[in-house]
Amino acid sequence: MSQAKPLRSSSTGALKGTIRVPGDKSISHRSLMLGAVAVGETVIHGLLEGEDVLHTAAAMRLLGAQAERDADGVWRVRGVGLGALAEPAQVLDMGNSGTAARLLMGLVAAHPITCVFTGDASLNKRPMARVTTPLAQMGARFVGRSGGRLPLTVVGGESMIPITYRLPVASAQVKSAIILAGLNTPGATTVIETEPTRDHTELMLRHFGATVTTERLEDGALAVTVVGQPELTGRTIHVPSDPSSAAFPAVAALLRPGSEVLLNDVGMNPRRTGLFDTLVEMGGDIAFENRRDQAGEPVADLRIRHSRLKGVVVPADRAPSMIDEYPVLAAAAACAEGTTVMLGLKELRVKESDRLAMVAEGLTRCGVSVEVGADDSLIVHGTGSAPKGGATVATAMDHRIAMSFLVLGTASAEPVQVDDGAFIETSFPGFVALMNGLGATIDEV
Ligand code: S3P
Question: What residues does the Enolpyruvate transferase domain cover (predicted)?
Fold first, then answer.
């Protein structure tokens, strides 16, 4: 990552316009990985060209696949076929991306190759035992730093064993890592999740020709089973725009009087839309127009108008469907009337930064009254109008912390500065230009 890039966001007038935010990050990673182990060509329209996904593309090339971008922005992946990933001659650098690291560790674990994974200072702090524990049960071996952290070496299993594994944390990354290992394992591999997490891996695997079934168990949990060693065939994929990126202009438009913004082609997978449900409960005027299906994923155009928001209680069981959106929800809550209580946020502590701590610290600096509960809840006492702002907020290499506080700055009495906006490039290239095009005032400092 390049040098730190401080950014300042100042109070602005109405936000107006129609935009398409970049492609979905989760779907983009998966399309490159599955394209690489399919037979034939996978054509990807709308791939997110953020740094996280570009790290995945580079890794797939080191593993033997071809992944190139056409002049018209379409990506073409020529796969090697399942089981045929090559041992990379170099370290796989996953940059800032937990998704890239964890999913790829699952995929290579079931190939008879040795791979060394590393990442940036943020990724190398994040827990990996959550994936290495089940993958080791299947037959792969790992040598990492304490806590299973990167840099870490994966020695893929020669004869992998299918397992049934109940997830100890609600994590689509862990679920996906096991499913991707199960893909090249003979027999049926099952992951049981008590809380439904995003199912892009399951949906896309079916699209590529694999058999993936989902069964509800007596205790209400979901059992996801993949039948190993299918023939995967290259496909065409249209990546919807990322609801987690749409969240930023959406909240900014809700907060600025007179705003009306149309966000086109936003992914509406129900396991991703918890933020929009919450904003509607808070009184947000969000219309879901032109609902349709795009290559197996639901999408809609979102029309968002300024609204007076009020505080709500966000239940813990909603967390998996909006896990990346709490920082920007906290910005909305800071401007809402009354108190917003967000429950069950333990997982926020192990994201690109400790988001619970970073949000609480940043909001406090901006003059907002916040409490973090011992149960990892976040309580934000809304100002009902513009928060004070007038502070520089630390972002700890976290793109979503940076964007959330820049959104807060659009609605604060005094500008909000973030110490480093460079990491926004990991997930939302063009964020500042897109926001300023709608009428925001975000400047390099
Ligand atoms: C992702 C899953 C989530 C999310 C991350 C992307 C994915 O992580 O925070 O940004 O693409 O599977 P967890 O599943 O570990 O919560």
Answer: 13-433
